[in-house]
């Protein structure tokens, strides 16, 4: 219900913005807008607002040639808009969100067909909105994001085919079925429509008894596909693709509405690796599932949680400022941290850290994610099991001290594997990491790799038969300060003369092959914390 109210509020707001640019509007335009809203309110079951519109309509006439100035029409729309102002936390937050009624958009100028279908579908659990012209249909398609579109082949202003070409790409991306409907079904019309991407071409009159199961079928397929492409299988949270789409939608609202505000939280489980290590990955998976499940039960209907990667999640809180979002996370924290997970005879509790950024003006999605990530970084560094708000911790976030990982390895696959791994794990010892690779020590020394302000970890592969490894290590130790360069060597065999030479040349650590990239990270974490913190 709240969603519909917000939708109506936004519709009116957009119209106000649009009309403000005009010297005047015609009475017919005003009447048409109110009538469309009345039709929507009917299906949204917002009776009071509908009655208000009906009162307004009593004084308007389709044939009037009166022009309305802003001082006349604005108070009317503002009064109507007030009906849709959503009071905060009216919904019971402990209730899980309700399954949404599917929303159908019928674009057709055949009044008899529309009234009949709307009535029939609404009594069968659908929400139906209608557009009598192609132009209106196009506007509503982008505004209300219908779950399915019924499109008339012949429309009064633009034909169905040209409308189809304008909506088909978005419909395809969102798996929104489009059904073409026409009283005149020819093979040529069908071929053209199918080629352009309609799911079905249906002749009028429609047999409603067949149509309903047919419609349900189409919708359940489209829902299933959407679910699979946008949902994370393990936790049931949305995936990153969904989050990116939602973030774009939220940013659009920021450009459309002056005071629109939303928040994004980046959330990460604390010491999750040790949960896996101690209780096994299966237990780790259960923790992840429960983590999301608790949030889904507490959240407000419009909040969405998405799995950003591994044990990191993002949450979008529409129409919510940073403080409100933090309060919501606090409820989640209390509930989730209170859960006692049981493994054998042991009980354990899990915590999480979060970073929030609130957005009131147009920014880039990337920037918002970076801000939330910085706030999360702050929360982790301030002791974990807490939430940091980007706007308040901004000053405490120190400029990032980058750590450079320099890999010298003659095997191109090893160099690539290392770069790939650390691109997805860009922190070592909690410092942001940058990777540079070289085939030989000579190449490294020739390059301008060093800067006295930066900390370095050199990873030198000594498993190959090259002779310049020891020379490289010796030269680095003799010609550069030792304080900001840690050297680790990779070796196949510890008990060799070269290894002994290397250790004498003052390497800090060695790792014996074969190893997993993850093992290197763990070793580097320790080394970096010991040497550079
Ligand atoms: P921090 O408090 O700094 O976040 O420490 P952490 O141990 O949570 O972070 P780190 O990034 O070192 O480890 C994350 C671990 O999450 C490593 C990875 O194996 C594990 N992980 C990622 N995805 C899954 C999954 O789907 N299931 C399980 N069980 N583990 C996962
Ligand atoms: Mg973690």
From TrEMBL:
SMART domains per record: GGDEF (SM00267), REC (SM00448)
A GO cellular component annotation in the UniProt record: plasma membrane
Pfam families cross-referenced by the UniProt entry: GGDEF, Response_reg
Keyword Hydrolase: no
Modified residue annotations for 4-aspartylphosphate: 152
PROSITE patterns named among the record's database cross-references: GGDEF, RESPONSE_REGULATORY
Molecular functions per Gene Ontology: diguanylate cyclase activity
UniProt keyword 4Fe-4S present: no
InterPro entries assigned to the protein according to its UniProt record, in alphabetical order: CheY-like_superfamily, Diguanylate_Cyclase, GGDEF_dom, Nucleotide_cyclase, Rev_trsase/Diguanyl_cyclase, Sig_transdc_resp-reg_receiver
Domain Response regulatory: 103-219, 404-528
Ranges where the GGDEF domain occurs: 260-392
GO annotation (BP), single: cell adhesion involved in single-species biofilm formation
UniProt entry keywords in alphabetical sequence: Phosphoprotein
Name listed for the protein in its UniProt record: Diguanylate cyclase (GGDEF) domain-containing protein
């Amino acid at each position: 219900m709240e969603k519909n109210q917000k939708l109506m509020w936004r519709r009116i707001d957009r119209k106000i913005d649009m009309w403000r640019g005009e010297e005047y509007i015609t009475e017919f335009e005003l009447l048409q807008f109110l009538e469309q809203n009345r039709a929507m309110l009917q299906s949204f079951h917002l009776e009071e607002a509908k009655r208000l519109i009906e009162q307004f309509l009593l004084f308007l006439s389709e044939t009037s040639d009166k022009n309305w100035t802003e001082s006349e029409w604005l108070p009317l729309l503002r009064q109507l808009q007030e009906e849709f102002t959503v009071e905060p936390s009216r919904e019971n937050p402990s209730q899980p969100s309700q399954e949404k009624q599917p929303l159908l958009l019928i674009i057709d100028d055949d009044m008899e067909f529309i009234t009949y279908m709307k009535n029939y579908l609404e009594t069968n659990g659908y929400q139906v909105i209608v557009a009598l012209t192609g132009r209106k249909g196009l506007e509503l398609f982008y505004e209300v994001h219908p779950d399915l579109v019924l499109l008339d082949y012949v429309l009064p202003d633009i034909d169905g085919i040209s409308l189809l070409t304008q909506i088909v790409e978005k419909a395809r991306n969102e798996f929104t079925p489009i059904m073409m409907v026409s009283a005149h079904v020819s093979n040529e019309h069908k071929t053209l429509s199918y080629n352009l991407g309609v799911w079905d071409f249906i002749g009028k009159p429609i047999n409603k008894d067949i149509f309903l199961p047919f419609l349900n079928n189409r919708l359940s397929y489209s829902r299933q596909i959407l679910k699979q492409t946008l949902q994370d299988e393990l936790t049931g949270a949305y995936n990153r693709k969904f989050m990116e789409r939602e973030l774009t939608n939220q940013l659009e609202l920021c450009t459309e509405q002056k005071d629109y505000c939303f928040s994004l939280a980046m959330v990460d489980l604390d010491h999750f690796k040790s949960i896996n290590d101690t209780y096994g990955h299966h237990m780790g998976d259960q923790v992840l599932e429960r983590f999301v499940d608790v949030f889904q039960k507490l959240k407000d209907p419009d909040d969405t949680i998405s799995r950003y990667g591994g044990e990191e999640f993002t949450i979008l809180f529409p129409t919510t400022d940073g403080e409100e979002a933090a309060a919501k996370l606090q409820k989640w924290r209390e509930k989730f941290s209170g859960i006692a997970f049981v493994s054998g005879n042991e009980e354990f509790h899990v915590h999480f850290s979060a970073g929030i950024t609130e957005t009131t003006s147009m920014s880039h999605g990337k920037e918002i994610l970076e801000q939330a990530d910085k706030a999360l970084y702050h929360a982790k560094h301030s002791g974990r099991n807490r939430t940091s708000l980007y706007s308040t911790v901004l000053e405490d976030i120190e400029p990032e001290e980058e750590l450079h990982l320099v890999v010298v390895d003659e095997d191109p696959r090893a160099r690539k594997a290392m770069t790939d791994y650390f691109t997805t794990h860009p922190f070592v010892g909690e410092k942001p990491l940058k990777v540079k690779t070289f085939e030989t020590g000579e190449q490294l020394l020739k390059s301008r790799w060093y800067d006295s302000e930066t900390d370095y970890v050199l990873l030198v592969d000594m498993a190959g038969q090259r002779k310049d490894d020891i020379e490289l290590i010796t030269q680095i130790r003799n010609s550069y300060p030792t304080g900001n360069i840690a050297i680790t060597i990779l070796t196949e065999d510890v008990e060799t003369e070269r290894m002994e030479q290397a250790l004498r040349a003052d390497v800090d650590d060695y790792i014996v092959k074969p190893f997993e990239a993850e093992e290197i990270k763990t070793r580097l974490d320790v080394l970096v914390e010991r040497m550079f913190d």
